[in-house]
Amino acid sequence: MKKHSTSTILSQKSEKKIVMITAYDALMAKLFDDTADIILVGDSLSMSFGGDSDTLGITMDEMIYHTKAVCKGVKKALVVCDMPFGSYQDETQALKNATKVYKQTKADAVKIEGGIERADIVKKLTDNSIAVMGHIGLMPQFVRLEGGYKVKGKDEEDKKRLIKDAKAIEKAGAFALVIEGVKSDVAKEITKSVNIPTIGIGAGRDTDGQVLVWSDMLGFFDEFKPKFVKRYLEGADLIREAVKNYAQDVINGKFPSSEYSY
Ligand code: KIV
Q1: Are the C-beta atoms of 22 and 212 separated by less than 8 Å?
Q2: Partners of 182 in the β-ladder
Q3: What is the CATH number of domain 6-231?
Q4: Taking CB atoms and a 6 Å cutoff, what residues make up the pocket around ligand 1?
């Protein structure tokens, strides 16, 4: 089993769709490793597992802790660590924190939200041999500034801006680009306008790959379901049912039976 690298991911553009999924621990990462090309330790961790209302509170050290765990479960997939809000406000801080990710974990790359305004930061990292995945469109770290999660690419001006963003991030040396919450036709044009692979989430089917948050796609997080999430399992229902059965067995004295006793 050959480990994915940034160059194998790059070579998949227009050849083979890229499958990316989030994971936050070794247990899940191990289950996804056979199938996923890329495992993203997303700052969505903050919401999916930390119970926060947005991603802004997660810290660099928390991301590093979870990235270390994910790397222990992975043999094949490329591992990407999301740089949390406030960890890459200027080039010096970004390089210091991304270097810490490389030193303290086995992550293959970091991910940074932002377009043209963050291109210098991406370049600083790639110039210092740190692989970067970009992230444009709806950027969850901008939620408080923008007053909500807003789909992008709704008019011609926005489309042109997104294409400029994508090209700037590509020129800065990123090996791949997440496009989130963007009209499908615009995501298709962005994909055609760059030579690096695009990975969509809520961006239609014409990107070079797709990413979903694992607890959303497997239905473990079931408080609400964004339009772009397809559930492949009703995980929360399965867990509630299993825990109910366990509780019944405990209450009725059926567990542990002799089979489970010394
Ligand atoms: O944090 C995350 O999980 C992400 C993906 C949704 C792209 O950034």
Answers
A1: yes
A2: 152
A3: 3.20.20.60
A4: 22, 40, 42-44, 82, 178, 180, 201, 211, 213
Going by CA atoms, what residue is nearest to atom 4 of ligand 1?
42
pTM over 0.90: yes
Q: What is the C-alpha to C-alpha distance for residues 165 and 136, in angstroms, rounded to an integer?
A: 7
Cα-only R_g, the chain: 20
Distance 44 CA to ligand 1 centre (A): 6
The answer for residues whose C-beta is within 8 angstroms of residue 211's C-beta and 6 or more apart is 20, 21, 22, 38, 40, 178, 199, 200, 201
Domain limits, the chain: 6-231, 236-262
Residue position matching structure tokens 């791949």: 176
Tens-digit pLDDT profile for residues 63-118:
999 999 999 999 999 999 999 999 999 999 999 999 999 999 999 999 999 999 99
Question: What is the C-alpha to C-alpha distance for residues 18 and 77, in angstroms, rounded to an integer?
Answer: 11
**Each residue of 166-198: pLDDT tens digit?**
999 999 999 999 999 999 999 999 999 999 999
Instruction: State the DSSP code for 182.
Output: B
Judge contact between 141 and 43, C-beta under 8 A.
Answer: yes
8 Å CB contact between 110 and 133: yes
Q: Is 62 an active-site residue?
A: no
Q: How far is the CA of 260 from the centre of ligand 1 (A)?
A: 41
Report the C-alpha gap between 122 and 171 in whole angstroms. 9
